[in-house]
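Example A, followed by Example B.
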Amino acid sequence: MKFKCNREILLDAISKVSRAVALRSTIAALEGIYFRTEESSLFICGYNLELGISTKILSNIYEEGSVVLSSKLFCEIVRKMPGQELEITCSENLITTIRSSESEYSIIGISPSDFPELPVIESDRRISISQGMLKSMISQTLFAVSDNDSRPVCTGSLFELSEDKIRIVSVDGFRLAMRTEPITSTFSTSFIVPKKTLEEIIKLMEDNDEKRVEICATRRHIEFNINGCTIISRLIEGEFLDYNNAIPVSNNTEIRVSTRRMIEASERMSLLISDAIKSPVRCVFGNGEITFNCRTAIGSATDKFSADAPNEPVEIGFNNRYLVDAFRAVSSDEVRLIIGSPVNPVKVLPPDGESFLFLLLPVRLQKND
């Protein structure tokens, strides 16, 4: 194998695919990047058996072939090489030479036959949606995905597609985040995408409503095509929680509040709370203001600000980290809080409509909290 390519373009490509490379594996090839020449382009792929990212770049191909190279080492070599063009040659015994200007490296490659094949996604049920919209939807719901493997279906986000809308739902047992947007689709389906996959695809997407991302899902896998990259991921199997039953049908009071003020007050309470020192935050909604109180072993804190709160105060306890996460995910300057009794979940909604919905479960307060 022998080819020449632009160093910056190659570095950008291998930086993207390396996100799917296994950090440690009993299979050496999974810790490497797969290269294969194809006419006038170079195919590049990283795959850890759960997530695969591949792309192609234009190259001058002199000899066809393929090889797997250590991801960490090769990325560092390319990053530090001088010059704008690289010449890479791989011999039959897998000795790979990288040349640029007066610099040269020779490293030992891994047999391409050891690299597992990517799953083949064969389906005509594909949709194309705005990158900006999908990135916003994922970013706004990712905080509520569970990190606890005891309930695998909660370690990913549920995608629901119908003929007129797409909905993404994340639930971790203590909170819920849901985002809904209108689309046009010829079919309906649902699937659960792992958190790791979602974290990677939002890095590849742009905040651009003109650019598109194509999605295709089968029973076990999903494929995203984003800006010349193909991301293939295993889906999470199982029945997602019936989230509709967790959403209160009606609540007693609606309050409009400043998103910034809620974040600032919550963050002030956080100064007294840590993993070792935990305590709920008391929020009192009433008499035209919202009051925050927190008491821990190292001290106490109070904060308040004006809001159109009811005359009859309602006191609700919250996990402060969940409060901060939810309001940081809000995309509007103002939100509506729909509150009921101290034991009912609180709904967080946009100023108008229901394009997003966050559900915060209350914490039962004790007298000494």
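Example B, a separate protein, is given below in the same form.
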Amino acid sequence: MNNLVILCNGAFPTEPYPLFLLDSAEGVVCCDGALEKWLEHRPDARPLMVVGDMDSLSEGLQERFKDCIFHETEQDYNDLTKAMRWVLKEHPEVTDITILGATGLREDHTIGNLGLLMEYTRLFDLGDRRVSMVSDFGTAFALTDSSDLHLGEGRRISVFSADNSLKITSEGLEWPLDEVVFDAWWKATLNRTSAPIVSLHFNHPAPVLVMVD
């Protein structure tokens, strides 16, 4: 199984692209109550696993899907991180992990989950796995070093980092990042691609969040 979706309990996707990713996934791991939202979209849905502390999943659904529930009670990490941990342990062969429903509804959850996308590059040995967070409004992914991004011309793009020692030189952006000091999250937002390929050159490895739409 190479292509998995982790479905979180935020805003359920409604646009064609994220719904295609959900419907075409080889397996779907639900974070707790996200299962209920998926069943509203697809009543015959069958999760690979439901992971979480089960605080937002009805007793009826817990009984119905009791053979595919992984009840994780520790509170040091949220349900998304618990689901990531389960996927990487139980399906080490996975090459693509798409996270849906991780944004919307609550701003604090949105900011926290986007921050976790960067943190996963430190928490887990991701290797060559592609991990992305997709919503109705765009796609987010993390980088750890210099990269060429084949995004196409005219895309909106924002770059975030919590490392104020990081310097990024760029090619293919309307507003180059060469003079940006990453000491505030807004510093490299609201940019636009000016070439089909965006090249980002880091002065040292560091977690960086890229958002495109």
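On Example B: The mean pLDDT is 95.
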